[in-house]
Automatic annotation (TrEMBL):
<dbReference type="InterPro" id="IPR051782">
    <property type="entry name" value="ABC_Transporter_VariousFunc"/>
</dbReference>
<protein>
    <submittedName>
        <fullName>ATP-binding cassette domain-containing protein</fullName>
    </submittedName>
</protein>
<dbReference type="InterPro" id="IPR017871">
    <property type="entry name" value="ABC_transporter-like_CS"/>
</dbReference>
<dbReference type="InterPro" id="IPR003439">
    <property type="entry name" value="ABC_transporter-like_ATP-bd"/>
</dbReference>
<dbReference type="InterPro" id="IPR027417">
    <property type="entry name" value="P-loop_NTPase"/>
</dbReference>
<keyword id="KW-0067">ATP-binding</keyword>
<feature type="domain" description="ABC transporter">
    <location>
        <begin position="3"/>
        <end position="231"/>
    </location>
</feature>
<dbReference type="GO" id="GO:0016887">
    <property type="term" value="F:ATP hydrolysis activity"/>
</dbReference>
<dbReference type="GO" id="GO:0005524">
    <property type="term" value="F:ATP binding"/>
</dbReference>
<dbReference type="Pfam" id="PF00005">
    <property type="entry name" value="ABC_tran"/>
</dbReference>
<keyword id="KW-0813">Transport</keyword>
<dbReference type="InterPro" id="IPR003593">
    <property type="entry name" value="AAA+_ATPase"/>
</dbReference>
<keyword id="KW-0547">Nucleotide-binding</keyword>
């Protein structure tokens, strides 16, 4: 059961051209990285997929779940760019609260919050107030909120932005460990960091899918002679054109 967008169109302002126009996209299995320049429409696409925005036209489907229904929202977890901590709640309370909001019983949510925090390696911080966690830890709490209600699709908007290299490593390992259980779509500007580890790479530009396919097929766009370790950047630049011309 894969998330599927068909002829999806969305614009923030009626009189302006849409930001996303007639977009067809099927989220593959595993870990997919969503790349694209500023303003390409990555966040908008993730919000539409999460049913946080209502499309102007087109459809979003996930099996037979009704788009935007409580069961759809339980199956699809979305982590926006900025996670606001609820200062008075501990990490465990926060994760359990999200589970409860998604329709779980209090006791279930509480028990699974513990497990979800262990999965993101934050069991030892479960009793810490969210306001005292670092940005990277807060994003791992965000992933735990998806695991608590056993989402099938995880939509992550620039989760590694602002993380130091060690935090990024922890986060990459976490996504790699989850890729067999959930379909993950993660937007990022860390081209080199995430793209080479992904199963699939999708490049969005001007609200259109410029490329989608396996990581190997993406990396093949790198010009011949690209230095080892620069393949992802080379492929990205080749697909989008030289930044000096942008
Ligand atoms: N709330 C909003 N109101 C009006 N226009 C918006 C709004 N949010 C986004 N846009 C516009 O929609 C377009 C796509 O924005 P979006 O945030 O989806 O791009 P993005 O690829 O995620 O960019 P970035 O990499 O900078 O986060 C941009 O032109 C942006 O200015």
């Amino acid at each position: 059961m894969n998330l599927e967008l068909s002829a999806l169109t969305y614009g923030y302002r009626r009189r302006r051209p849409p930001v996303i126009e007639k977009l067809d996209y099927r989220l593959p299995d595993g870990l997919t990285v969503l790349l694209g320049p500023n303003g390409a429409g990555k966040s908008t696409l993730l919000k539409l997929a999460a049913s946080a925005l209502a499309p102007r036209a087109g459809t979003v489907s996930l099996g037979d779940l009704a788009y935007g229904s409580p069961s759809y929202r339980r199956a699809v977890a979305w982590m926006p760019q900025a996670i606001t901590p609820l200062p008075s709640l501990t990490a465990r309370e926060y994760v359990a609260y999200v589970g409860w909001l998604k329709g779980m019983s209090r006791s279930d949510a509480w028990a699974r919050a513990e497990r979800a925090l262990a999965r993101v390696e934050l069991a030892d911080r479960a009793g810490e107030r969210t306001s005292r966690l670092s940005g990277g830890q807060l994003r791992r709490v965000g992933v735990a909120t998806a695991l608590v209600h056993e989402a099938r699709v995880l939509l992550l908007d620039e989760p590694t932005a602002g993380m130091d290299p060690r935090q990024r490593r922890v986060f990459r390992d976490l996504l790699a460990a989850l890729r067999d259980e959930v379909h993950i779509l993660v937007s990022t500007h860390d081209v080199a960091d995430l793209a080479e580890e992904a199963d699939q790479v999708t490049v969005l530009d001007g609200g259109r899918v410029l490329h989608t396919g396996t990581t190997d097929s993406f990396l093949r766009h790198a010009p011949a002679g690209t230095a080892p370790g620069r393949a992802a950047e080379g492929a990205y630049t080749a697909l989008l054109g030289d930044p000096a011309d942008a």
